Amino acid sequence: LIEPLQLVKGNTQLCAYDIEKEAIRHFKIKRMEDVEVTNEKNTFDSNINQTDIFGFTSPESFTVKLLLSKR
């Protein structure tokens, strides 16, 4: 059972909270065969680290050095 949070990667993946694993996970839309809407209340704790722009879901902070090309 998951709680959908947002569509990501050009709407090709669903970012969702996996209740059993108590973690944010990504699911490829093209692999989904069936979706069932339930009447369960959301349990997602917004204090859990969501995936950032680089795909990290850690509570730690990272310094990122970007190397950009000149067009």
Strand order of the largest sheet: 1-2-3
Q: Quick one: overall form?
A: flat
Would you report the number of β strands? 3
Q: State the secondary-structure class.
A: mainly beta
The largest β sheet comes out as: 3 strands, antiparallel
Number of helices: 0
Strand % is 25-35%
**Mean pLDDT reading:** 83
Q: What is the H-and-E element order? A: EEE
- Work out the radius of gyration: 15 Å
Low-confidence stretches: none
> What quaternary form is this?
single chain
**Portion of residues within helices:** under 10%
Q: What is the straight-line distance between the termini?
A: 45 Å
Can you lay out the helices and strands and say which pair or pack?
Elements: E1 2-8, E2 13-18, E3 23-28
Antiparallel strand pairs: 1-2, 2-3
